[in-house]
């Protein structure tokens, strides 16, 4: 396996096609995966792992789900892409509109990044305003307007968080603090009638897992409505994860535009953005806001998405919640027994244990985590055959494929590894 990574590094920057896969924040070398089935993945040396990364969220039914594979195989034989409408696109669009409460019309794209980038353009085109508000610690893909961090002092312009993002563009992105409505209010006051939209992960899943406090999401809703700005929920993780209708259904707060990805594609590359008809009608060819894609609505991806969503019903979420609660309670009991006061945030089938004793309600709180300790924990778990995200600031996902035996083995490993660390 060592040789594979060395060789990959000669041909692919850092040996990977997405940075966090390189194990940069935990050290060591990534495992190369040969195959997956259900809750398990197998590396190229044949070692088995119980997987809680689940491809960073999409695999809510686990790996190589039989129903999804059957559908993709059936469609595959009819051709992989046409660049013309298919019934599959219609079927998935109808399904999304039926499931996600605030979506009346939806446009398919090929990744979450693309969905968010397009949603931001739509919000700007619709409102005729350039500025947007995002929250520190929320991730919305790698498009220019969103690779922006706070400048010094909350009232300054956003600054590029990557070379290659023009400062002239980044200055239109304003940064607020998650769970701090006042920071958003202040930005609205200082930029009267200039804010096109507020974009938020309704449950933050890219700084670990951080839950919205009571009144935060509804407060954003009110602020946006009063200021003529659009509210965008980036539900690329939470969509179909927290409930059939995502976080908006779970918290009963309706955004104007929703971005989707990950679970939507059932493990194939899909993103989507949708919202009220009156807003979505501004998109080309109906309206002036341009957005297109050669492989958008790809038949294989649509087939996987349909098969995936068809399996999500009330009972599915009930069972998934039961499993998740069992695992989260196991972790909490372990910590109690070991007298560890680590912050543990969970909601439905996603969670994060932060190696800090401070309750984590914001990015600043999350940053107090001991990432060295997380790295040791991660490697300890991996050695015991449990695959977690190679970074403290990511979610852990339970899928329907995880068995009680998997969960018990995971709770046991969690206890043993934590014990070794303390
Ligand atoms: C993963 C993610 C994205 C980006 O999706 P990609 O498919 O990786 O481009 C956007 N927003 C959120 C909240 C995500 O978790």
Automatic annotation (TrEMBL):
Entry's Gene Ontology BP terms: protoporphyrinogen IX biosynthetic process
GO (cellular component) term, any one: cytoplasm
InterPro entries on file: 4pyrrol_synth_GluAld_NH2Trfase, Aminotrans_3, Aminotrans_3_PPA_site, PyrdxlP-dep_Trfase, PyrdxlP-dep_Trfase_major, PyrdxlP-dep_Trfase_small
Signal sequence segment: none
Residues modified to N6-(pyridoxal phosphate)lysine: 262
Locations listed in the record: Cytoplasm
GO molecular function: glutamate-1-semialdehyde 2,1-aminomutase activity; pyridoxal phosphate binding; transaminase activity
Pathway it works in: Porphyrin-containing compound metabolism; protoporphyrin-IX biosynthesis; 5-aminolevulinate from L-glutamyl-tRNA(Glu): step 2/2
EC assignment: 5.4.3.8
Enzyme category, top tier: isomerase
Keywords: Cytoplasm, Isomerase, Porphyrin biosynthesis, Pyridoxal phosphate
Major subcellular site: cytoplasm
Cofactor(s) annotated in UniProt: pyridoxal 5'-phosphate
Catalytic activity: (S)-4-amino-5-oxopentanoate = 5-aminolevulinate
Assembly, per entry: Homodimer.
Family: Belongs to the class-III pyridoxal-phosphate-dependent aminotransferase family. HemL subfamily.
HAMAP family assigned to the protein according to its UniProt record, in alphabetical order: HemL_aminotrans_3 (MF_00375)
UniProt-recorded name of the protein: Glutamate-1-semialdehyde 2,1-aminomutase
Record gene name: hemL
